[in-house]
Write a structure and sequence with these properties.
The chain is of the alpha/beta class. It contains 14 helices and eight strands.
Length: 298
């Protein structure tokens, strides 16, 4: 098939590579011309503008946008709509909020085009392992573009989720679950690290990958990280969040669904960014006031 790819970051570029390797024709655009040239060197057709990208594709066109969530998605859609024609399709493969996706799909549909939201998981390993794809939008357009999805995903790794927004909704919850899993591994290995025994954390992560009920790909990646640096001394314990965990917690509140593990894992990320916790200072001061418990001074 033929596909336009807008955004050649860590995932967009590797997705382009995976599609090229399976014989698809890729027309690519990125704000960085050097990145476009690099993709062209690997077999893609480079475009110097969105207009050139659209003109180079044959109708009905499909353009996959792989840009950061939020304003960049709307700006890209704003730029593409006047260039594209009836029955063309825009695919958002980023981590967009599903309600934004529903709004965008309505706008694109009113312009006579189609919109697919594709929750994409796989990170930097997607080129080698494939990407898990959670796809929303019109089913017939999903079927039209299925050769693209089939190439990007490993066997059994993609599916149609439902109408517009469903793909990004499922990906949002996927990432919320990821928050909880990461937090559990982090806490467990901190307890191991603090133990009275001289434990080999790399060895533990390695053996837990086989037969253990907590084995997972995340554990394989942890084993890999510990093999490079057993004490992780060079890594600062600062953990960012990219939005999906917050959205999952908001959705749980809105739907009256108890989700304490995901919520607390999100709050722990906030705590990781504090050089000094003011709430901890308040607690220390109160313990001193009501019980005479000693406080430590800077």
């Amino acid at each position: 098939m033929e596909l336009g790819m807008v955004g050649l970051g860590r995932m967009g570029f590797n997705m382009t590579r995976r599609l090229l390797r399976d014989g698809h024709r890729l027309v690519v655009y990125d704000r960085n011309p050097d990145t476009v040239r690099s993709a062209a060197d690997e077999g893609a057709v480079g475009a110097s503008s969105l207009a050139e990208l659209v003109q180079t594709l044959k109708p009905p066109r499909a353009v996959w946008i792989m840009v950061p969530a939020g304003a960049p998605v709307d700006e890209t859609i704003d730029a593409l709509l006047p260039l594209m024609q009836h029955d063309d399709t825009i695919i958002d493969g980023g981590n967009s909020y599903y309600k934004d996706t529903q709004r965008r799909a309505k706008r694109v549909s009113e312009a006579g085009l189609h919109y697919q939201d594709c929750g994409t998981s796989g990170g930097i390993w997607g080129l080698q392992e494939g990407y898990c794809l959670m796809i929303g939008g019109e089913r017939e357009i999903f079927q039209r573009l299925e050769p693209i999805y089939k190439t990007l995903a490993p066997p059994g790794g993609y599916a149609y989720m439902g109408p517009s927004g469903a793909g990004h909704f499922v990906k949002m919850v996927h990432n919320g679950i990821e928050y909880g899993m990461l937090q559990a591994y982090g806490e467990g290995f901190e307890i191991l690290h603090a133990a009275e025994f001289d434990l080999d954390l790399h060895q533990i992560a390695a053996i837990w990958r086989y037969g253990s009920v907590i084995r997972s790909w995340l554990l394989e990646l942890l084993e890999r990280a510990l093999s490079k640096e057993p004490d992780l001394r060079s890594i600062k314990g600062y953990v960012e969040d990219s939005g999906e965990g917050r959205w999952t917690v908001f959705e749980a509140i809105d739907k009256n669904v108890p989700a304490p593990t995901i919520a607390l894992s999100l709050f722990q990320r906030f705590a990781s960014r504090q050089e000094e916790s003011f709430s901890a200072k308040v607690i220390a001061a109160l313990r001193n006031e009501f019980g005479g418990h000693p406080v430590q001074h800077e």
